Amino acid sequence: MIAITGASGFVGSAVLRKLLERGLSIRALVRPSSDRRNLDGLAVDIAEADLLDPQTLAPALKGCKGLFHIAADYRLWAPDPKPMFSANVDGTRAIMLAAKDAGIERIVYTSSVATLGLVAGGGVADEETSVAFKDMIGPYKQSKFLAEAEVRALVSDENLPVVIVNPSMPIGPRDIKPTPTGRMIVEAATGKMPAYVDTGLNVVHVDDVAEGHVLAFEKGIVGERYILGSENLRLKDILGLISEITGGRAPRFKIPHDLIMPVAFLAETWTRLTGGKEPFVTIDGLKMAKKKMFFSHLKAEQALGFFPRPARDALADAVQWFGENGYLE
Fold first, then answer.
1. Domain hosting residue 36, numbered range
2. How many helices (H) and strands (E) does the chain have?
3. Rounded to whole angstroms, how far apart are CA atoms 8 and 46?
4. What pLDDT does 180 receive?
5. What percent helix, strand, coil does the chain show, rounded to 5?
6. What is the pLDDT of residues 283-301, one digit of tens each?
7. How many domains does the chain have?
8. 185 is a domain residue
9. CA distance 114 to 23
10. Residues 294, 231: contact at Cβ < 8 Å?
């Protein structure tokens, strides 16, 4: 039996499907309040558990030999960052310790390229690019950095059998929330993104990220980490591909980061005052956009046999799914 946290989410449900394709028995750990649409029709054992309630973890892991810890609080803006640190840092440590007590023999931990260093001037980073906590912008990156440090310490101090994967920007079907990345695709596909900033991202299909997780489980070395990414693209080119797929018009205007920063400040202030949803542009998001987040997946390719598809295919599948499920209306 293989346990998965975050199994009802975007990446977790994709990993779950890959494991089912291999004929494995799966136990999905979900919170009582989780949206379970991504689990509909799947032959999985469902166990209610909460990372913030350690007492619920031991029963959920009982009898399992493997664990994929994928659950995370993924937001680029939060009015109160404390819940994000609780979920991503404290929750990760709790599930890892519960796995140790349960005798789990193999664990894959889903980190993020957000924890990795970047190369100035648009260069390509890898798993060994130097980085420190001070380089982390915003609570999401900070919390994931600390969470990965917790996992590494447990591997070293407790001999916990963990392989770490660092997905880049997964896109594709079943992004029901949607994620911050998914929202960007929806806005671009519906013509609600009239301009762009100069930044760069690594785009990868969510199903390839899922395959990378399974390959890490099968072939990865304990204590090592593997970037699960595909193509490095400027945001302008990503938006251009989306316009080709939808038949729409790509944004033509590039806005300087500093020019839009006051807009981000006002958007965040208004959201805090009104208690509304995440603002359409954030200060941390703009700070991150000043750097091109380009990465190499060569290590995963050579060590795991990870061969992701082109970014255009990922974008096309995402647009199709969003369209079929009413997000583009």
1. 2-176+204-230
2. 12, 12
3. 10
4. 86
5. 45, 15, 35
6. 777 777 778 899 999 999 9
7. 1
8. no
9. 32
10. no
Please, what is the angle between helix 206-219 and helix 10-21, to 10°?
A: 60
Mean pLDDT for all residues in the chain: 92
3-state secondary structure of 9: coil
Question: How far is it, in rounded angstroms, from Cα 252 to Cα 181?
Answer: 20
The answer to whether residue 104 sits within a structural domain is yes
**Rounded to the nearest 5°, which phi and psi values hold at 291?**
-115, 140
Q: Which phi-psi region, left, alpha or beta, contains residue 138 (left: φ > 0; alpha: ψ -120 to 50)?
A: left
Classify burial at 284, counting beta carbons within 10 Å of its beta carbon; exposed 0-12, middle 13-18, buried 19 or more: middle
**268 part of a folded domain:** no
SS (H, E, C) 266-316: HHHHHHHHHCCCCCCCCHHHHHHHCCCCCECCHHHHHHHCCCCCCHHHHHH
Where in the chain does DSSP place strands (E)? Answer: 2-5, 26-30, 45-48, 66-69, 106-110, 162-167, 169-171, 195-196, 200-205, 225-228, 231-234, 253-254
DSSP classification of residue 191? T
CA distance 85 to 211: 28
pLDDT one-digit tens code per residue, 196-221: 888 999 999 999 999 999 999 999 99
The reply to whether 316 falls in a domain is no
Phi, psi of 58 (to 5 degrees): -60, -50
Partners of 327 in the beta sheet?
none
* Domain at 22, CATH number: 3.40.50.720
Q: What token pair was written down for 4?
A: 């998965």
